[in-house]
Each structure stands twice: as structure tokens, then as C-alpha cells.
Amino acid sequence: MANIHTFVTMNDKLYIFDTTLRDGEQVPGCQLNTIEKIELAKLLESLGVDIIECGFPISSPGDFKSVVEISKVVTSSRICALSRAVEKDIDAAAEALHFAELKRIHTGIGTSDYHIKYKFNSTREDILARAIACVKYARRFVDDVEFYAEDAGRTENEFLARVVEAVIAAGATVVNIPDTTGYCFPAEYGAKIAYLVNNVPNIDKAIISTHCHNDLGMATANTLAGVMNGARQVEVTVNGVGERAGNTALEEVVMAVRSRKEFPVHTDILTKNITKISHQVSSLMRMPVQPNKAIVGRNAFAHSSGIHQDGVLKNRESYEIIDPQDIGVNDSTITLTARSGRAALDHHLRRLGIVLGTEELADAYKKFLDLADRKKEIDDNDLYAISGISQDDIVQKIKLDYLQVVCGKNSIPMATVGLIIDGEKCSATCSGKGPVDAAFTAIRTLVHRRINLEEMLVQSITRGTEDNGIVHIQVENNGQFYYGYSADPDIVTAAAGAYINAIAKII
Ligand code: KIV
Ligand code: ZN
């Protein structure tokens, strides 16, 4: 552990260095083009990321261009470009960063014996000299130079400390201690950072950074051990994307630090934006997030056992350590399965506008258990059947009378929607980005309400083209969330039906 004196005098701001666009993007098949990188960089900036590593400019013209273009549009986060300990790499990084308001060059070399012997066929003394030279060279272009000691996780601590001391003396402002192969255990990685804190005389002139890979599933634990021992910058990626088993996940470190008040640091991340950026990274990189992924997985706030559901419905904190709203998720999910209790069934019936008395509920619960034993998950159609109330019984003030759309390649999508509101017929024609957007705009025009579409899920039961399209929708109005559902072989009609079903609940 770092000695207590160093620890208490240390800054409590934890810098978030995001490398989704560099280390994260090295995943095969997940490459992003410049426009996609700019979009993500802007989202990272609005998330409050301190440093955005945008690419490795010497590696390809695409990477070079991305660093240039992001440098022009992102102004509040620092823009970082990677290089090897090679002058032409550093030249390219400096040139690509030309337009950046806040800039950093990240340069370095392998320091473990594996790298020194097999990768460079060199000696420790030569590597030390090259490390010093690259930092001095990079400082000719920028004031902020970060040095990485590649494979520091497997570098002997004494030699690592010599390298770190020398590069700080040469002008490095940040020293990055990567566990490149994801080899370390948390106590070991924490001890490595503590060793540097206690044995590098000029360590107070630089910030220590963690950069952990997840090969043994330890990336977040190692990063937090690093922070506990004095690191004040963490290198992370959204959703933990990255080569092999990935990098440390941004959302895990940020929420761990925020959830455990005894942690000695804070970040400036606007956590409400986490879910949005997680979805965007997943969709642009075509990398689905595993459902049980901490913080951002689909099931991270879903409760399915009866005891947990009952507890959460009484008080969320019984089974949740994070408020889902803190990361931009509207609510916890209570999934209906054979293990759900009466409270969960009642909760879902009420969501559909069905309020049952005690006896009716007990009766519905029996039917529910019978069905849930045979079906994996119970949907809204099942709930209507179980309660004995049909969807039409819940008098919907708005009904879809007709819908006609024009769409296709090289045409402007248009929709004409006819509604019956409180028995009165009305219609509107609107254009949109696609037929669904056009239909939704027409519906909004007719109901005169500000309605935000929060989520839309389109499913088909089988793979056939004649199948029913099922659409689930969630909308927001005045801070309240409403759910709508519809099914139709025509997917646009199903979407319009679901939208109207949700709006009917508002009205
Ligand atoms: O994992 C690693 O060592 C790296 C360095 C280039 C920082 O990504
Ligand atoms: Zn890495």
C-alpha cells in the first residue's frame, strides 16, 4: 500500500482516459469510420471524459484523419494520440493533433524481459535510453506527454521504477503502467503501483495511470487496486471493448468509485449518459453487450425471483446497490417468470391499467403460475388472458382508423394517419426519416402532445416474412413513462398501433 502520508496529500480527482477509439477499436470486425468516431468522441465529451485517445496516427491514413477531425470538434476533453518510441510515429501524432485545443502524445516501449529479449532483441539499458529519448522528443511538440511501459504487469518492479523515474525526469507528465496481457492479480497490481509511489523519488511530478486488460477477468479489480494505491488516471473503454477479453470497462470503474463512498476519489463523469453511450458503442461496433454485463447489461436491473421482486417493489434498495436512473435507465425491470410472486403480477397488471381485488388477483395468480410453468416468459397478451380482461375492454380513447404510407428507395417517406379520438375522426399527413417516423409524426400532430419515444423493440415470432411483427414501445410524457404494444403482419401498422396504445394511457 502507498504510505499514508502520500495517500492523504494526493489529489482526489480520478482522471478518466477513454481509449474506446484506439485500444477498443482494435477488435477484429469492429472498426469505425471517421464519421462514427467523431460521433462517439462527441458523446465521450458530453459524458465528461477527461482524455480521449482517438487513434494511432502513424498506423493508417484513417487513424490519422480521425485524430485530425476529432481534434477540430472536441474542445473540452483532451485529445490524445498514440505512438511507439519512434520519431516518425511521434511526428505523425504531433501533426494529427495540430488542431486540438488540449493535446497529449502517448508514447512508450515494452519494458518486460519478454518484450526486451524477444520483441526488441535488446537490453534493459538500451530500452531505458529509448524511453528517455522518446519522451524528450515528444516534449518538443506538446507540454503533455504520457509514457507507457508496455507489459509493465510482467516487468520486474525495480527496473520499472528506474524507467518511470527516468521518463519523469525527461518530461513525462503521466506514467502509464499497462497490464498489457491481463496477467496480474489485484493485490499484485496494487502492490506494483504502491512500489512506484514509494520508490520513485520524483513520482509526485507525474500522474500514475492504470491500463488493465481483462484476460483473467481482473481488469476492473486491478484498476481499482491501482487507484487504492495511488493511481489517479484510469484507462478504460465503454462496455470494456478491446482486443481479446477487452479492456477495463469505463462504466464499472466509474460506478464502483461512485457507489462506495469510502473510495478516496471522484470522477467528473455524468453517469446519466452511460447507458446511451453504451448502446451507441455496441451498435456502431456491432458488438452486443452480454445481458448479465455489470452496469450496462440488459439484465443488470432485471429481477426475476419472487423474493427479489417483492423486495424491490417495496424498496428498490433491498436488492439494488445502484439506482438505475443514475446511469440513465428509467426503472428496474420486473420480469414475469414461474418464480415471480403475486406482487410482481399485480405490478404488471396495473401497468396495463388492470386493477384486481384480492380474490381476483389470487385467482389470476393461479392461472399465471400454471401458464408460467409452460412458458419461459409471460407477455402482455398473456396478462390480458389471465386477468380475463381483453385489451378492447380497456376503453382506448384513441384508435387507429387507417394508415397509408409511401416509402422506398429514392422516395420521401410519407404517412397518412386516420385516428378516432373520443369518437371523432381526424387525419394528418406527414413526412419523416422513414415510414415509421412519418407515421409517428402524424400521430403526434393529431394528439397535440409532446411525446418522447424512449425505446422501440420490433420482434417476429418465426423467421417467415408472413409472420406477425410485434412492437413494444416506451414513451415519455412529463417525466412519466408509458408502455405500448401491438402486433400486425404489417410492421408499420404494428408500430403505429403500439405508439397509439402507449399514448392512450397518457390521455
Ligand atoms: O495494452 C497496452 O500495453 C497498450 C499500450 C499501447 C498503452 O495498449
Ligand atoms: Zn492496451
Main pleated-sheet profile: 8 strands, parallel, barrel
**First-last Cα distance:** 60 Å
Rg from Cα: 28 Å
Which homologous superfamily in CATH is the superfamily of the largest domain? Aldolase class I
Ligands, ions, cofactors: 3-methyl-2-oxobutanoic acid, zinc ion
* Tally of distinct domains: 3
Strand order in space, largest sheet: 1-2-3-4-5-6-7-8
CATH topology of the largest domain: TIM Barrel
Helix content: 25-40%
Shape from CA axes? elongated
Mean pLDDT over the full residue set: 91
Number of helices: 17
Task: Briefly note the structural class of the backbone.
Answer: alpha/beta
The CATH architecture of the largest domain is Alpha-Beta Barrel
CATH class of the largest domain, named: Alpha Beta
Name the poorly predicted regions: 1-9
Strand content: 15-25%
Find the count of extended strands (DSSP E, 2+ residues). 16
